[in-house]
Design a protein that fits this description.
CATH architecture of the largest domain: 3-Layer(aba) Sandwich
Order of helices and strands: EHEHHEHEHHHHHH
Number of domains: 2
CATH class of the largest domain: Alpha Beta
Number of helices: 10
Largest sheet: 4 strands, parallel
Strand content: 5-15%
Strand order of the largest sheet: 2-1-3-4
Shape: globular
Length: 206
């Protein structure tokens, strides 16, 4: 039986944030139908650190029955999924490095352009989390979100929640992982083609 391991960009350098990151992704994946066949989640901090963790796991995967995968922020928009190697091509260009030998196309998955894009795609979850204090006018339309610049996505969330209080306004890290656990995967599938590709790849190997 193959065991999937996902090396995730997220969690920073804090042990507390690593725990919250892992919990947020775990709860979202449970709602995606992976309860009972949950992959092991490893929060690596930066995207480059995730790649560094993934590479040795890949090297030993043939004899271990493990199928390692990457899940990182793309940082920049990527076109709607069209080529099996599209995410790897983006990673190689981003870090001017080499694709790990022996890696399969679907072992590289991306949050396009960042986890905040997933959060912004679910307007219902934002309304439920923030209530009447949420200012919806700064939020970007759900259509075409993966083509939006990372900075624009993050700025929209910060402006929409700036009146929600210092401890509740959106900030990357603790707050993002709390909301991540509340997202509705069916809503994300409607707006995020790369999210769909990630789930399809995970389903093939879980």
């Amino acid at each position: 039986m193959v065991s999937v391991r996902i090396y995730i960009e997220g969690g920073g350098d804090s042990k507390d944030l690593h725990i919250r990151c892992r919990e947020g992704f775990r709860r979202l994946l449970e709602k995606c139908g992976f309860e009972g066949r949950m992959p092991r989640l490893f929060e690596s901090g930066s995207g480059y650190a995730a790649l560094q963790d993934f590479t040795p796991a890949l090297a030993g995967s043939a004899s271990s029955g493990i199928y390692p995968m990457l899940l990182i922020d793309s940082e920049e928009p990527i076109a709607t999924p069209s080529s099996p190697s599209q995410v790897w091509d983006h990673i190689v260009a981003r870090w001017r490095g080499c694709r790990p030998p022996g890696s399969a196309d679907d072992q590289a998955q991306a949050m396009v352009t960042c986890v905040e894009t997933w959060v912004l795609a679910d307007r219902g979850a934002l309304r439920h989390h923030y209530g009447s204090e949420l200012q919806e006018s700064p939020l970007l339309p759900e259509t075409g979100l993966e083509a939006r610049a990372r900075g624009d996505v993050q700025d929209a969330l910060e402006r929409a929640t700036r009146n929600c209080g210092r401890d509740r306004s959106y900030a990357k890290g603790r707050r993002s992982f709390v909301i991540l656990a509340e997202l509705d995967p069916e809503t994300l599938k409607l707006h995020l083609p790369h999210f769909v590709s990630f789930l399809q790849a995970l389903d093939r190997h879980s």
